[in-house]
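Hi X.,

You mentioned you wanted examples for the new student's onboarding notes, showing what a folding record looks like when two proteins sit in one file. Here is a clean example. The first protein comes first, with its sequence line followed by its structure tokens.
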Amino acid sequence: MRTRFLSKMTNGEVEDYLDRNDLIYVPVGVTETHGALPLDSETVLAEAIAVKMAEASDGLVLHNLPYFFPGGTIVGRGTIQMSIKDGMAYLDKIAKSLLNQGFRRQIYITSHGPAYLTLSGMVRDFFDETKVPVLYMDVLKAAEAANFNLMDAFHDMTIGAYKVLGRLEDVPMNVLESHSVTYDIQHMLAGMSRNPGNALGKYAYQSGAVGSYFDEPSDHMATPLLKTPEEREAHADAGVQAINELVKALDMPTIVETLRQVDVYTKDTILPKYSAHLPDGKA
């Protein structure tokens, strides 16, 4: 295929694709302070992983979704705030439009910790309303399920994602340390420890336990110091390799086939039983 990105295709190319398949990946991102990396780094990572997944399973990708709930990083003036409920409503409209156009199998991808607050609720509500199962894959949880060590490779993968998308030049070098940037993980941890809300965060997953903000933007993430183009290229190459390894470990053809089976099982087995209990006999 000329491209996997839906917005870069012609309408005729999309229609030809839908004549043979119904699979689309939707990487959902965030625009937030992220150390010495660009504000869209976690959007770019989700997009790069999504396109690799699409290549592995003959899917398309609907990208350019960078403005969703950021979590505690609103202390960075580059962070764009979106409420959870507004993000859910927006994605619900997109999901229904995709379904109406013929994309019955939809897989939503995120690499941002608090994204589950938006995505999990949307995916569940969408199913209850349409009776069509769509899948949410949190890269952090997906890596855990595939026994892939994501944390050691996360920054390389983020830089590598820019290379996958042909945007490596967007990753800056020699960024000075400041209230927004630290290269010292101990400095980051010390800053995080000042917020008493972190003591309560262990009682639920990520931002779902208690509302709080970071003290300074640099508390969010210690990122690698990139001094030369050669160092940036080396991180990117390692990251591209890690992205490929993760996607291979996940076995996307099996995942998308299982999603199809869930849809068939829902229609053929669950809904007839469910409909029998409704007053008008219709699901």
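Then the second protein repeats the pattern, sequence line and then tokens:
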Amino acid sequence: MGLVRSLTLVWPGLPWLWLRGSLGGLVLALAFAVLLDMAIVTTWIWSELVDLSVSIGIWTATIAVWIMATASAASSFPAPISQGPDAAANTLFVKARDAYLARDWLTAETRLRAALALAPTDGEAQLLLATLLRRVGRKAEAKRALEQLSRSDSGAPWQTAIARELVLLDHASRDGEPDSPPHEDLLPMPSGSSAAASAEKAA
């Protein structure tokens, strides 16, 4: 574990509060703060008003809480939250994108869904899946996916693209496009200069 993450073990409850935002961690951290404050106050500030046995009891409770909380946190230290998509999910996304550009819809969808199973908050993969669903004529699924993405944090960087897709979807619905693409859309994209043109058209 990293040095900064290890330092959270110094204060009971802090590993779960700092690294996971846990309410239980907050309660434990506050409880330990109260105990420690009471121990300090009864030892050095109100020492003449509080019996020595009471002060020792408070210190004993404070140390006991610290030992138990630290041992518990060390044995089940929260793992770091991943800051980016899983490497396998990223590889699947790249393959899905290539299949999409090649107009191989089935492979693209299969790989996108596999990537999203590994990284469900990948907004780019969700957007590409919704675009694919629109292109193959599954308009209801595409609209549902786009609306869900637009309401999520994952969709925040993609709001412009989502709005564009919704407009295209609305136009497709008004124009009465067929529910499934022509058979030639399932063929691989030709090579050479025509491949680049087809890729632009697919986007």
